[in-house]
Write a structure and sequence with these properties.
- This protein is mostly helical.
- It folds into 2 domains: about 15-80, Winged helix-like DNA-binding domain superfamily/Winged helix DNA-binding domain (Arc Repressor Mutant, subunit A, Orthogonal Bundle), CATH 1.10.10.10; about 85-255, Up-down Bundle (Four Helix Bundle (Hemerythrin (Met), subunit A)).
- Helix content is about 65%, strand content about 5%.
- The chain has 11 helices and 2 strands; from the N terminus they run ααααββααααααα.
- It has helices spanning about 5-10, 15-30, 40-50, 55-65, 85-95, 95-120, 125-145, 150-160, 165-175, 195-215, 220-255; strands at about 70, 75-80.
- It has a two-stranded antiparallel sheet.
- β1 and β2 form a beta hairpin.
- The protein is elongated and about 65 Å long.
- One of its GO terms (molecular function) is DNA binding.
- Pfam families: FCD, GntR.
Length: about 260
């Protein structure tokens, strides 16, 4: 008897560094380590958590990338002064903007791949025209050096609408402006999306999706949407890894041991 997808699914165990991040984050939010105070040394943290220095450095790099701690050359790692403010709590709860973008893209992958396939099959003429209109509005805004986020969201929302299943639209509406990190007018936007090259890449990917839907090719539409969202996911993952590497190097330089 063949195994089902449920049989093959393996729950991912949290990395050791994630456990350390969670524990320290709780201490910070509880005020157990006040703003401006120096964290215990790497050696002390390895003893406290029973993990290696590599794990501790990885955890501190993540906390630094989230804006909760900051390494100081030759002095150690300190809790940032803003940790007790609303911004600090938000950063602790939601992480960096790049982390948020990755989480949102993961959800969109689960939703929009199938919505693209259904749109290719179920769309009517008016719905296809709405997808095309959003595509050309993105192009117009790009040529005028205007924020393309609203048109980007309209493009994906028009595809969701073309499934003729209102819940696909509802899911995108729940995500709202967070769904489109390239919306530079949104508080969820990141520095990565400012370049014309980045925007051009998005539009090329949009064109492949549009052509597949217009051709009524459900499989091609699904694959085009998967490629589009996966490419965005990879771009943000590389950016986040670069930031964490920067903080890890700063932490190493700040170590007094």
């Amino acid at each position: 008897m063949s195994a089902t997808s449920t049989d093959l699914r393996v729950e991912r165990k949290p990395k050791l560094s994630e456990n350390v991040v969670t524990a320290i984050r709780k201490q910070l939010l509880a005020g157990e380590i006040p703003p401006g105070q120096k964290l215990p040394t790497e050696g002390q943290l390895t003893e406290t958590f029973g993990v290696s220095r590599t794990v501790i450095r990885e955890a501190l790099a993540k906390l630094a990338a989230d804006g909760l701690v900051e390494p100081r050359q030759g002095a150690g790692v300190f809790v940032t002064e803003h940790i007790s403010t609303t911004f600090g709590v938000l950063a602790a709860d939601m992480g960096s903007k790049d982390s948020i973008a990755l989480n949102v893209l993961e959800v969109r992958l689960a939703i929009e791949i199938e919505s693209a396939g259904l749109a290719a099959i179920r769309r009517n003429a008016a719905q296809e025209a709405a997808i095309q209109e959003a595509f050309f509005e993105f192009e117009r805004l790009l040529l005028d050096s205007q924020p393309t986020g609203p048109a980007d969201l309209a493009f994906h929302r028009a595809i969701a609408s073309a499934t003729n299943n209102p819940f696909y639209v509802e899911m995108l509406d729940v995500l709202g402006r967070r769904a489109i990190p390239c919306d530079v007018t949104s508080p969820w936007s990141t520095e990565l999306v400012q370049s014309d090259e980045y925007q051009r890449g998005l539009q090329r990917e949009h064109l492949v999706i549009l052509n597949a839907i217009s051709a009524g090719d459900a499989n091609a539409a699904r694959e085009a949407m998967r490629t589009h969202l996966s490419a965005s996911q990879q771009r943000y993952r590389e950016r986040l890894q670069a930031r964490q590497a920067y903080y890890a190097n700063s932490l190493k330089a700040a170590s007094t041991e």
